[in-house]
Amino acid sequence: MTMEDMTSATWAPLSNAKFNRTIIERGVNLKDVACLPISLGWFGKKEENRRLIKVQCYSMEDTANFYMRPIEGLTVLLDMDTKEVVEVSDTGRSIPIPKATNTDYRFSEQKLQQDLNSVNPISIEQPKGPSFVIEDEHLVKWANWEFHLKPDTRAGVVVSRAKVRDLESGVLRDVMYKGFTSELFVPYMDPTDAWYFKTYMDAGEYGFGLQAMPLDPLNDCPRNAYYMDGVFAAGDGVPYVRSNMVCVFERYTGDIGWRHAESPITGMEIKEVRPKVTLVVRMAASVANYDYIVDWEFQTDGLIRIKVGLSGILMVKGTAYENMNQVEGQENLFGTLLSENVIGVIHDHYITFYLDMDIDGSDNSFVNVNIKRQETSPGESPRKSYLKAVRNVAKTEKDAQIQLKLYDPSEFHVINPTKKTRVGNPVGYKVVPGGTAASLLDHEDPPQKRGAFTNNQIWVTQYNRSEQWAGGLFVYQSHGEDTLDVWSERDRPIENKDIVVWYTLGFHHIPCQEDFPIMPTVSSSFDLKPVNFFESNPILRAPPYFEKDLPVCRPAYSA
């Protein structure tokens, strides 16, 4: 969909007399109506040969947070090209529209309490300015890192040609040719008529970058951030600017790069500590109600951390219930009662990343380093068992379809088998998963067929320039015929080849009252970490901080 498609779809129902009549009968003034364009996935042949979209609406009366005031059960099926209303369905006439009370999240609308225990403002000061430079508007150089940065309508932000300088040799070494958010899959867990189709593909259907909003200086990004605009083409080809779409800044939160203090029993008074400063590339997309914050964080030790934060506003369902004591027995609400007449529906988020790794060159291999328990022989040792690492080089794509298992752990290495360290280890990076979730939907469920790229947490494919979008090049109303799952089943050779690693970060979200009326950010991440890439600790020679090196900031009250 283009932005023009989405905008025109939200207004089109107002030209339909039946729709307008229904709105008025539900007690909403037409001037207070706000509508959302909702992709409808694919659920059969009746939806083919037309560009269709569903529209659902809300009441804006007395609040900016209209998402909390759904006109429940009212769904319009619309032809996106002709703007013809194909069908109006209203299954929620008995469900009241939730009240606007306590739904507004704007600071200007909050009733501040006198006893609110506020945190004093904090800012990291850099009297000498930031340590990074950006050349030709896109080439970022910081510490031992260099990479190209580009805003993108579909991916949001693309990091490419990432290289790290080896301080032993002084050589810039290849790490990653290109990395970006390939697709997002957000299925809601309500099979009823007004909800079953809510199984969004936010990048391929809406455009992750198209939904990026200008970042707010001081709050989205700190004082010394650099901002990058996105320059895109509208549906008619006219270029436009998305200002402040990406920011780049240095982060210091008191973390430690490395440390060691020697025990007094050795007689040596040693205390060596190094602070950790990192470089962050950030963008935030507001895909209707939900906000996604994506960080690419670069560390001087060679690690890249990719982090996703979820915030914004829940997509909620209207209900006749005002209290849980009205709910009988084990009735399935498909979510949590958050406030009077408001249910937060259970849903998942999956964010799949495309990672074209080039470890010291384009031809790499994927190694599953399985951690196994080894039993000792009788009389061999006082120990009964220990762990050993078993390295399995993936020969083909099916060998590299990975589902994470807590009790069958592995490390996942991308190595260059032709480049060795001084002592003979192949140079590499490893994918280090963080907290994540796996899809539990039936593989034959139509949404999961389209979102089959979430069937595994890690995939590795042979590079193909046409295979960049995990849900397929054309996602809208697709059947799942052109996904990462389909490509991987070709089982192409991947040993010592130009390969792409795909990693899916997942969240199960059972809403709770703390998510109302707007959600505190919840985050998860994964790392790309050097493994035998350097000859030794690459930040061994990093200097500590001394008082004389830092700015002196005086409290305001003594100024």
From TrEMBL:
UniProt-listed InterPro entries: Cu_Am_Ox_Cu-bd, Cu_Am_ox_TPQ-bd, Cu_amine_oxidase, Cu_amine_oxidase_C, Cu_amine_oxidase_C_sf, Cu_amine_oxidase_N-reg, Cu_amine_oxidase_N3
List of residues that carry 2',4',5'-topaquinone: Y290
Example GO molecular function: quinone binding
This protein's cofactor list reads: Cu cation
Catalytic activity, EC: 1.4.3.-
Q: Which ranges carry the Copper amine oxidase N3-terminal domain?
A: 1-98
Q: Which residues form the Copper amine oxidase catalytic domain?
A: 123-539
Active-site residues annotated for this sequence? D202, Y290
Its PTM note reads: Topaquinone (TPQ) is generated by copper-dependent autoxidation of a specific tyrosyl residue.
According to its UniProt record, which protein family does this protein belong to? Belongs to the copper/topaquinone oxidase family.
Q: What do we know about how this protein assembles, alone or with others?
A: Homodimer.
Name the chain's protein: Amine oxidase
